[in-house]
Amino acid sequence: MSDNIFNRRNDNRNTDLITNPSPRVPVCLILDTSGSMFGDPIEELNNGVELFLEEVKSDEKARWSAEIAMISFGGVVNVCSDFQSVDRIDFKRFYADGGTPMEEAVMKGIELLEKRKNDYKNRGVSYYQPWMIIMSDGEPTTPLVKSYQITYKMSQNRKLVCLPLGVRDANMNILSKFSNQFAMELEGIKFKDFFEWLSKSVGAVANSSTTDAEVTLPQPPPTLKIKNC
C-alpha cells in the first residue's frame, strides 16, 4: 500500500468523525489464519466474517456507530482493516498459511485501538467500551510476553471487553490469560453462530441510551461454551 493511499484512508476516517457524530463502538477482530485453518475452517471463518459485516450493516444504529478493525495472523501479522465504519470495509477473504504469531497480532490490535481512541478524544467523539475478539485454533508459535498482561489489565479496569475464542484444538489455558472473563470455546467450526451473536451484541451496545449504560447482551448460542480454565 502506497503512502498516498494510506494517508487518504486516514483522512477519510478522520473526516467521518466530524460528519458522523454518533458515539462509536470500536470492535477489533484478531483472527488466526495459520496453516491449521486450511480447508473447511478458513472457509467457515470467511463466511462468518462476511455475515458479521452484513448483519452490522443491517442495523441502522450499529451501521453508523460500529468501527471495525480486522487483523489476521497466519505466518505474518496483517492489518486487513484499520478501525472504520462497516460501509468502508473492502473485505478480502482470508487464506490459511504459516504459524501463529499471536503476541505480535494482539500487540498490533492494542496499538490500533489506542490510536483510534486518541482520534475520538481529539475530535470530541464519545465511544463505548472497545471490544477485542482474539480467535485461535492452536497455540502461539512465538512467546507471549506482554500482550496478555495489557489486555487483562484493560479488561479488569473496564477499558476493554476482551473475548478470547478457541476453536477445535485451541489451548484454552493460554487464551484465558487475555481477559478477566472466561474464554469461550466454539463447538466445531460454527463461526456463523459466533459472528451472528457478536453482531447482535454490537447492535445492543450501539442502541443503548448512553455510553455509560449497562447493556444486556443476547444469550450466546448453544455452540458457544464458556470455559472455566
From TrEMBL:
Name of this protein: VWA domain-containing protein
Gene3D superfamilies: von Willebrand factor, type A domain
InterPro entries in the record: Tellurite-R_TerY (IPR011392), VWF_A (IPR002035), vWFA_dom_sf (IPR036465)
PROSITE patterns given in the database record: VWFA
Organism the protein comes from: Brachyspira innocens
Domain of life, source organism: Bacteria
Sequence ranges assigned to domain VWFA in this UniProt record: 26-205
